[in-house]
Every structure is written in C-alpha cells, then in structure tokens.
Design a protein that fits this description.
heterodimer, A: mainly alpha, ABC transporter involved in vitamin B12 uptake, BtuC, two-stranded antiparallel sheet, 15 helices, 4 strands, globular, B: about 260 residues, alpha/beta, six-stranded mixed sheet, four-stranded antiparallel sheet
C-alpha cells in the first residue's frame, strides 16, 4: 500500500489536515519549551543521583560559575540573532581584565577600573561591527577570528609576561564573589542584564529590527530598516557584555589575567544554541541563552559531583550541542509541514 | 466610494528609462484612477517590471514625470514612493518568516514612542499595532489560521494575502501587485483575486501585473499593453477581445512594424 494512487490521497486531505495539524503544532510547541524541559529532566535526574546537588550551597555555586558564561552569552545571542557570530568574546574579556588590572595599578577607584574594562570590551565590539559591516566582509567569522587573535596577543603583551596580576578594588571583588541575602551578587547582575536585554529585544523598536534583520535581511532593507547600524549595534553590545563578564571574573578571582576567557566563545555559542536559538537567524528567546548557560553549568557541576572525568564533560556538552542543532532542523521541517498542510486545507 | 471618472490619482507622462544601450521604457504614458484595477500587460522583457520599479522608487526615470494626485512627485527611493502613498507587493513578498502578521505589517515603520527618543530606542505600541493589523485582516476577510503565529507557518496564499494587506494599510494612493498569483494554486489564487476586487471596491487604485489572461478579463477595468518598451495599446479587456489582447502582447497583429 505504499504507492497509493494520487486521487485517493488527495481526497483524504480534506479531513486529515486538522488532526495532523494539531499534532504538528503540538510538537512545535514542545520544541519551543524543549530546552527548559531538558534542563528540568537533567536537574531531576542529577538530584536523584547525588543529594548534594540541590543544596543551597551547590546551587549558588552553579549560579556563580555560570554568571560569566550567561552574561557573555546574552551578547552572543544578539549577534547570532542577526545570523552572525562573535568569536572574539573570550579574548576580548581577557584583554578587558588586563586593562582593568593595569588601571588598578594607577588608581584605587573601582569606578575607573570598571569603566576601563567596559570601554575596552565595547571598543573591541565596535571594531568587530564596523569592520564587518563597513569593510563589507562576507561573514563576521573572519573579523572576530582576527580580533580573537589580536586581543589575546595584546593582553599578553600588555601584561608583560605576568600570567596573573593580583588585586582588584573591593567593590569589584564584592560584585564577583559576594552574596546578598544568600544570592550571589553576580547572579543578581545576570538577572539585571537579562531584564535590560529583554526590554531592548522585546519592547523596543531596535529589538524588532534585530529580529527582522536576522529573519530576512533583504526584506529588512526593502522595508527601510537601517540594517548596517543594527548589525554594528549587536557587536557593540556583545563587546560590552564581554566587558561586564570581565568585571565579574576579575572580581571573583580578585585578579586579572591574559589567559582568562579561554574557549569562552565556544561556551557562549554552545549556550545560545542549546538554549534553542537558530544559526539561521531571527529565532530564539533571550531567556533561552540563560537556560543554555545554566545547562552547561549543571552538566559540569553534576559530572564533577559524580566524579566523572573532566574530558567526558567536553564530550557531554558536545553531544548536547548536536541534540540542540538537530532540534532546530526538526523545527524547520515541522514548519514546512505546517505550511503545506495550511495550503492543503484551503483546497 | 464614488465611482471612477474623476481625476487620475497617478499619471505617468512620457516615461523613458535606459540601461546603457537597452532602451527599456520608451515614452510611456498612462493614468490610474481610484476604484479601478489597471492591468499592465506585456511579454517578458516588454518593460513592465522596469516601469513599475520606476514608479515604486527602485529605479529613477531618465525622462518624463510622475504625478500623484495631480502633483508632480520626484520618486527616487522606495521610501519616497511610500511617502507618496504608493505601495508595491513584489513577487518575493518581502515578508519576515519569523515575525507574526502584525509584526510584519509594521516592520520598518513601527508605531512607537516617545517621539523625542531616536527611532530605534522607542517603545513599541504592540497592542495598537496588533489591533490595527487585526482590523485590516478582518476587513479584507483574509483567513489566517492564527494571528499570533509566525508567518513561516502559513501557506503561500495566506502569505500573499498578508503582503497585500500590509500594502493596503499604508497605500493612500496606489497599490502595485507584481504577479500576485504566479506561485499559487487554483484555490489560493481565487482568494487573492477576491482580495484585489475588494481593494478596488474600497477605492484603491490597483496596478496589476500578470500573465494570466483569465484574471485580466475577470478583474481589470483597463489594460495597458507594453511591447519592447513602448505602449502599444490600451483597452477594456473583455472575453470578446481576449484574442486581440494576446495578439497585441506578442505583436502578431500587424502593429509589429513599430520597431525602428
């Protein structure tokens, strides 16, 4: 019965689509909450395996450890929304901590040290965006790969052979490692930044433009959206997020280092993709980058608690990335199905 | 809406457009009126797409003038055309798959405030945009499965309808449709044709580019025929003169001696 005559199958479509359509749209909805679902299952399984996992101390530990990834991933998410990628975030962060460390040698002011790190991060982001857009590069991969190398080299050069420069102003240390009412300050900072990015992405015209540019760049031009500036702005914000991440990491360790943020670009890209954003652009809720970051933190923490080899952590995260990307492929497939069914229903 | 015979909303006079050695539009003049569907006909390469792109601001005319509501208007960019109340639905639709119909409607011209902020930093008036988009969709009797779902989940006909509906929100003067049924099945084409008829009933001036003679005879109040960049005829399309119309388009009618 595999090869049904066409007439028979077309006569069936009249009553079938409604049932099929609800099934497909149900699975689409399931996919959109998928990351959160997987995180919940993960937490449940791990807490069964090791009772220590869900203790307040461990939870605040996980949150503190994922703060840097989460903050930088929020910026990375905006870039990926526009079909781009920012490979420079890790080196950018390292350079920012070194600039902060050097500033601390000159002044004790926490404000000036923080400002130095934020400006350093933002400037690198601005260079990324400007060279990509106005230098008419075919893909942001190239320029951010270049700044990945340049920033790391600059950080090593500026720190003149020191792998760590000890000391940070008290306020920055408090931001990176202090608690307020038992909640890590860095997590509170993550929450604040998330709210800010959410407002920008969901409530402001800029956010609508960002989704539009990522979804359909050609149409965005035709509709009069300032595409170039939207693109540049996402790299600037990604750089700023790397600067904020630098403050948190320098504060947590009370030090700066040109070696910080190694492979952070991969962790943040993984967080964004695991969280359910699409490399095809224009899709992904801001909150999902957080879920992705927490999921990476949970996997690492759980495997640590279970005494699993460090190398296996890398394998596990790699497998989760493949799963997440396959979910994205499945989503596009289901969307195409829905479209076909809609057309069939009009017949 | 009052009936057609009033002053034309769009007048194109002695339009000329060259691309290097190619003389794509040669001295073409025509008018469009409110409450009328004007079909723009011609074989591939006849110049109709170029002509339309000159009206919608993609190209600038070399010579000739465009008058909108009796005022000579310089249209040198798509934005200028929109400001003049001319909306175009291109074949690629320019829809954002990842956005909902309402978001698509207002993309690039969001209703947002406060005014003193730079445009990108203003806050979206989502409810107002949703409400107004829903009202248009409703008024045009467009059937959408879900109003808050992304356009990616909708069929070709529904997408076409959304693009057309978007154009009508902003078109105060003219709606140009470039082959709106080319990619659609029979039923979905029907819906889009009904939509065009309704645009006309609401008083819009509709310029329709199509290759489908059935649709022309059914819908168009007037047809302008182009061949090799020239206007070779203008008539009221009817069943009786359908053959004549086709002959004019392909130039198999004794008027083929117009080429220099």
């Amino acid at each position: 019965m595999r090869e049904q005559p066409e007439i028979a199958s077309s006569s069936q479509t009249s009553d079938r689509p409604t049932g099929g359509l609800t099934a497909v749209s149900l699975s689409l909805r399931l996919l959109s909450v998928g990351p959160l679902l997987i995180l919940a299952v993960l937490v449940a399984v791990v807490s069964l395996l090791t009772p220590y996992f869900l203790t307040p101390v461990n939870i605040s530990n996980i949150l503190a450890q994922t703060a840097v990834i989460a903050i930088v991933a929020l910026g990375q998410h905006l870039v990926i929304l526009t079909r781009g990628i920012d490979l420079s975030v890790g080196s950018n962060l390292a350079l920012a901590t070194v600039i902060g460390g050097l500033t601390f040698r000159v002044t004790d002011s926490a404000v000036l040290v923080m400002l130095a790190m934020l400006i350093s991060g933002t400037l690198v982001g601005a260079v990324n965006g400007a060279v990509y857009v106005f230098g008419r590069l075919p893909h942001p991969f190239i320029i951010t790969l270049a700044t990945l190398s340049i920033c790391r080299g600059l950080a090593l050069e500026l720190s003149i052979g020191h792998t760590t420069m000890r000391g940070m102003p008290d306020f920055i240390v408090a931001v990176g490692s202090g608690n307020t009412f038992g909640i890590p300050n860095s997590s509170i900072l993550v929450a604040l930044i998330t709210v800010a990015v959410l407002i920008m992405a969901k409530a402001m015209v800029w956010g609508r433009w960002t989704y539009a540019v990522g979804g359909e760049p050609e149409a965005a031009l035709e509709m009069g959206i300032p595409v170039k500036w939207v693109l540049v702005s996402t790299y600037v914000i990604s750089g700023l997020c790397a600067g904020i991440g630098a403050i948190v990491l320098a504060g947590r360790t009370a030090a700066s280092s040109p070696l910080y943020g190694n492979l952070l670009e991969l962790d943040t890209i993984a967080a964004v993709i695991i969280g359910g954003a699409s490399f095809l652009g224009g899709r992904g809720h801001i909150g999902h980058a957080l879920i992705g970051a927490v999921m990476i933190g949970v996997i690492r923490n759980a495997l640590n608690l279970l005494n699993v080899d460090v190398f296996f952590q890398m394998i596990a995260i790699g497998l989760v990335i493949v799963l997440a990307v396959e979910a994205d492929v499945l989503r596009s497939f289901l969307e195409a199905r829905t479209r076909a069914m809609q057309a069939a229903r009009t017949q | 809406m009052n009936s057609a015979p009033n002053s034309p909303v769009l007048v194109v006079r002695n339009a000329q457009k060259r691309f290097g050695a190619v003389h794509a539009v040669r001295d073409v003049s025509f008018e469009a009126y409110h409450g009328e569907v004007l079909a723009l006909l011609g074989d591939n390469g006849a110049g109709k797409s170029t002509l339309v792109k000159c009206i919608s601001g993609v190209y600038a005319l070399d010579e000739g003038e465009i008058m909108v509501s009796g005022i000579a208007t310089a249209i040198h960019s798509p934005a200028a055309a929109r400001r003049a109340g001319i909306e175009t639905v291109y074949q690629d639709l320019a829809l954002f798959d990842n956005l909902t119909p309402a978001q698509n409607f207002y993309c690039g011209r969001e209703i947002a405030g406060p005014e003193w902020l730079p445009r990108g930093m203003r806050f979206l008036s989502k409810r107002r945009m949703d409400r107004e988009a829903a009202a248009v969709i409703d008024r045009l009797k467009v059937n959408l499965p879900k109003f808050d779902a992304p356009v990616a989940l909708m069929s070709g006909g529904q997408r076409q309808a959304i693009a057309v509906a978007r154009a009508t929100v902003f078109a105060r003067n003219v709606v140009i449709l470039d082959e709106p049924t080319a990619a659609l099945g029979l039923r979905e084409s029907r819906k889009v044709l009904d939509l065009i008829a309704q645009l006309r009933a609401e008083g819009n001036a509709v310029i329709l580019i199509t290759h489908n003679m059935e649709h022309v005879v059914e819908l168009a109040d007037r047809a302008v025929v182009l061949r090799q960049g020239r206007k070779v005829g203008e008539l009221k399309p009817e069943r009786a003169n359908q053959q004549h119309l086709v002959a004019m388009i392909v130039g198999a009618e004794g008027i083929g001696n117009s080429a220099p």
